[in-house]
């Protein structure tokens, strides 16, 4: 059975752990990264992902929008879920970022799984 590969990115270790656990219990394979820079290294090394879930506001050179832009250069049809606790972050910089769904913090595990399902369901 195929298990979708998800790249989960957030600078908060608790959120990474909670998200990774919920996703694995739902049957997904998960790779976690503590920032956009580390996440992009994984993509750049040729790891293929079926979905990117990324926080928007993160330390380092790549915020979530920057990570999404660079990841889409290497994985063109990569679905994206942007996660943020800052409503204003969802609008700042998004014009030049790939289209994605938004998941607002604090989210519940149900919200995360629903966002994943919606993001991975092709639009007809």
What's a quick, concise take on this entry?
This protein has four helices and five strands, in the order βαβαβαββα. The protein has 124 residues and is an alpha/beta fold.
Please give the structural blueprint.
Elements: E1 5-9, H1 13-25, E2 29-33, H2 36-44, E3 51-55, H3 64-74, E4 80-84, E5 101-104, H4 109-120
Parallel strand pairs: 1-2, 1-3, 3-4, 4-5
Helix pairs in contact: 2-3
SS-based structural class?
alpha/beta
Amount of beta strand: 15-25%
Q: Give the low-pLDDT segments.
A: none
Q: For the terminal residues, how far apart are their CA atoms?
A: 25 Å
CATH topology: Rossmann fold
Strand line-up of the largest beta sheet: 2-1-3-4-5
Overall pLDDT score? 91
Approximate shape: globular
Element string (H = helix, E = strand): EHEHEHEEH
- The total count of strands amounts to 5
């Amino acid at each position: 059975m195929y298990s979708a590969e998800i790249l989960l990115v957030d600078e908060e270790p608790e959120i990474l752990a909670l998200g990774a656990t919920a996703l694995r219990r739902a049957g997904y394979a998960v790779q976690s990264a503590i920032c956009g820079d580390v996440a992009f290294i994984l993509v750049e090394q040729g790891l293929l992902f079926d979905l990117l879930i990324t926080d928007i506001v993160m330390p380092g050179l790549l915020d979530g929008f920057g990570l999404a832009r660079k990841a889409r250069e290497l994985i063109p049809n990569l679905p994206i879920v942007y996660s943020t606790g800052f409503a204003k972050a969802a609008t700042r910089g998004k014009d030049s970022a790939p289209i994605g769904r938004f998941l607002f913090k604090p989210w519940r595990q149900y919200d995360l799984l629903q966002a994943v399902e919606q993001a991975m369901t092709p639009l007809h």
